[in-house]
């Protein structure tokens, strides 16, 4: 996972629970990485999981809830850092439809060794969008939180209905979004 | 004290991050340098390839041309009317294709030359004038070359640029009028603005934007020769010099092609 996500995770913990908590959490973690995380670096996914699990325990939140909150925070940090990806859109649906084939494509040009999720879109109706998510990392809760961040950014409500299923031995996750 | 400790710690983490980032930048720069060299090599290969390909194409094309001409010469009127017509179509097409292949070659070469140098535009235009002596003589044209500056640019490209614009100006003249071409330059804030003005047939406003596209052909080819790629060259050359190219024209009253060339010294 790219360092930028680690940095955002650290920022999330520091902002929400305090610098000291972050210190505590990081020293309690058993990380493969010794040096500090930098944005363009690539670090083991397990290190992120270790941070998330340790942090969730220390702040007394279930891991999925922690991930969702972190996803929400993450969207705002990404949008802050890359305003050009977000600014052109006035509604969340148009924006979300660019994540896979514009934003993450650009991300791939900015960073090397990325491993981005794959999205498949379908539009059952004007105010609906189904994003089928596929990633070996299965970061379903982070994704849910990111979408919540998008909703708040555009100052709208997005109702999410989820379904997890398997096809040809691969696990997929549908985010059925209803905009209002 | 505790706070001081924490600041110190933060500072040392920040320093460590800077070191890591610097190393990443170095590595990346080295990679970019290597891939840039790779690209340059590939470009050279490509240039060589198109050179060879075009030479290989030119040869059979020349054969088609000369044998179809020979055929026309010998057998004209001996077969039926269609045969004559078909053969002259073949001959004309082969000629056009030769011109196209040549132009494509030139197009590929733009931008692959060495470095920018000081280019004396007046000298360049005088040389272009002598290259075009034949057509100037045949059409009875006059070239009015104003005072032109020394600019910083790619000499071969600049020459091609003037050559294209001047020969276009000579080509698209009114049937019974002698072409008159004026070449001048004026200084703008950060660039030179050149003008190549003719008294030719002019360009319909609907075409004025399209004419810089590759292969866009402006005039009916039966009346005016030319493959239309010339102006696309010009645009590419001007782009290479961070400039703009445009045309102002009134149908029937001549055209003025303007282009600007950035002067890096003023930037
Ligand atoms: C400004 C907008 C965005 C930027 C710059 C951005 C950039 C990134 C980056 C750098 C990563 C890490 C990739 C890696 O470590 O290899 C990532 C991962 C991810 N992004 Fe985005 N992203 C943006 C918006 C979104 C949005 C709106 C969503 C959801 C709808 C999303 C979903 C995800 C998910 C779920 C991951 C985790 C990786 C995985 O699931 O395998 N991103 N993104």
TrEMBL record, chain A:
Top-level lineage group: Bacteria
InterPro entries documented for this protein: H-NOX_domain_sf, Heme_NO-bd, NO_sig/Golgi_transp_ligand-bd
Pfam families assigned to the protein according to its UniProt record, in alphabetical order: HNOB (PF07700)
Location of the Heme NO-binding domain: 2-160
Protein name: Heme-NO-binding protein
MF terms (GO), sorted A to Z: heme binding
Listed SUPFAM superfamilies: Ligand-binding domain in the NO signalling and Golgi transport
Automatic annotation (TrEMBL), chain B:
Source taxon at top rank: Bacteria
Statement: the UniProt record of this protein carries the keyword Membrane: no
Gene3D superfamilies in alphabetical order: 1.10.287.130, Histidine kinase-like ATPase, C-terminal domain (3.30.565.10)
Class of enzymatic activity (EC top level): transferase
Residue span, Histidine kinase domain: 52-265
Coiled coil: 4-31
Transmembrane regions listed in the UniProt entry: none
EC number(s) given by UniProt: 2.7.13.3
Keyword tags: Coiled coil, Kinase, Phosphoprotein, Transferase
Reaction(s) catalysed by this chain's protein: ATP + protein L-histidine = ADP + protein N-phospho-L-histidine
Pfam families: HATPase_c, HisKA
Keyword match Coiled coil: yes
GO MF annotation, one: phosphorelay sensor kinase activity
Protein name, per record: histidine kinase
Organism, as annotated: Zeaxanthinibacter enoshimensis
């Amino acid at each position: 996972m790219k360092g930028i996500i680690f940095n955002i995770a650290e920022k999330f913990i520091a902002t929400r629970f305090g610098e000291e908590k972050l210190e505590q959490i990081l020293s309690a973690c058993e990380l493969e990485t010794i040096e500090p995380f930098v944005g363009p670096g690539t670090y083991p996914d397990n290190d992120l999981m270790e941070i998330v699990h340790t942090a969730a325990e220390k702040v007394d939140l279930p891991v999925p809830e922690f991930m969702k909150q972190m996803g929400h925070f993450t969207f705002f940090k990404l949008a802050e850092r890359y305003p050009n990806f977000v600014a052109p859109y006035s509604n969340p649906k148009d924006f979300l439809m660019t994540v896979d084939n514009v934003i993450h494509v650009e991300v791939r040009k900015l960073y090397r060794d990325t491993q981005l999720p794959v999205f498949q879109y379908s539009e059952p109706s004007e105010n609906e969008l189904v994003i089928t998510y596929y990633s070996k990392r299965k970061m379903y809760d982070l994704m849910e939180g990111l979408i919540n961040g998008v909703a708040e950014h555009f100052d709208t409500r997005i109702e999410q209905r989820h379904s997890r299923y398997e096809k040809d031995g691969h696990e997929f996750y549908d985010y059925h979004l209803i905009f209002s | 004290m505790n706070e001081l400790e924490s600041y110190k710690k933060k500072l040392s983490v920040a320093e460590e991050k800077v070191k890591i980032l610097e190393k990443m930048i170095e590595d990346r720069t080295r990679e970019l340098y290597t891939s840039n060299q790779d690209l340059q090599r590939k470009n050279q290969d490509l240039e060589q390839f198109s050179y060879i390909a075009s030479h290989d194409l030119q040869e059979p094309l020349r054969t088609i041309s000369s044998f179809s001409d020979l055929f026309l010469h010998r057998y004209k009127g001996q077969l039926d009317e269609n045969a004559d017509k078909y053969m002259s179509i073949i001959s004309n097409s082969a000629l056009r294709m030769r011109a196209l292949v040549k132009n494509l070659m030139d197009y590929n070469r733009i931008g692959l030359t060495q470095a920018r140098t000081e280019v004396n535009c007046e000298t360049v235009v005088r040389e272009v004038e002598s290259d075009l002596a034949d057509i100037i003589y045949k059409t009875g044209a006059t070239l009015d070359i104003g005072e032109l500056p020394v600019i910083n640019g790619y000499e071969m490209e600049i020459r091609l640029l003037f050559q294209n614009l001047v020969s276009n100006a000579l080509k698209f003249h009114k049937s019974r009028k002698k072409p008159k071409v004026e070449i001048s330059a004026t200084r703008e804030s950060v660039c030179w603005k050149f003008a190549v003005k003719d008294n030719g047939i002019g360009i319909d406003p609907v075409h004025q934007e399209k004419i810089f596209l590759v292969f866009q052909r402006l005039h009916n080819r039966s009346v005016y020769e030319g493959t239309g790629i010339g102006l696309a060259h010009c645009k590419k050359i001007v782009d290479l010099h961070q400039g703009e190219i445009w045309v102002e024209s009134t149908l029937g009253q001549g055209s003025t092609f303007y282009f600007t060339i950035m002067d890096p010294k003023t930037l």
